[in-house]
Design brief:
Blueprint lengths: L2 H7 L3 H11 L8 H13 L1 H19 L7 H14 L6 H10 L3 H27 L6 H15 L4
Length: 156
């Protein structure tokens, strides 16, 4: 074995403690990549052996706790939460079409009518206000056109 393989097979007490916390004291549950190194550490370290015994004691205590089956009310509550959270979300177009067309029979008629009437009313209002402008002579129109064209030109 070369030095790289030896380093890979070594494990620290801290890492061994993390393995015990994550996988428990039974070596069969440890990751294959680190199992051999952890077992070697157990052979040479009394601290590692003590940590494993503590983990095995905890595992035995946890295994003694009876697991009760959930009640029907709890199951129904969980299923209801899952069904609420799995509703398909609407994108902007679906939301807009649903909003414009409505969901009830009355909304199917009124919403499109209002949606069509608003631009019409806005156009009529603007048109009526434009006819109320004072009379402007031809020279004033040319001056206003030049200002409008300069406003649209590039900034210098």
């Amino acid at each position: 074995m070369n030095k790289k393989q030896t380093r890979k097979m070594m494990i620290t007490i801290e890492r061994f403690s993390q393995l015990l916390d994550a996988y428990g004291g039974d070596a069969k549950r440890w990751p294959l990549e680190e199992r051999a190194a952890a077992l070697k550490l157990l052979e040479v370290s009394s601290e590692a052996h003590h940590l494993q015994q503590s983990a095995l004691t905890l595992d035995n205590l946890l295994n003694r706790i009876p697991i009760s089956s959930p009640t029907t009310a709890l199951r129904n509550h969980i299923i209801a939460k899952i069904q609420k959270s799995t509703k398909p979300t609407k994108d902007a177009w679906q939301w807009l079409v649903e909003w414009l067309l409505g969901t009830t029979t009355l909304e199917h008629v009124l919403r499109p009518a209002f949606a069509l009437a608003l631009p019409l009313l806005l156009g009529i209002t603007i048109g009526l206000n434009l006819t109320a402008l004072p009379e402007i002579d031809e020279q004033q129109w040319v001056f206003e056109d030049e200002i409008n064209l300069l406003a649209l030109g590039p900034l210098e």
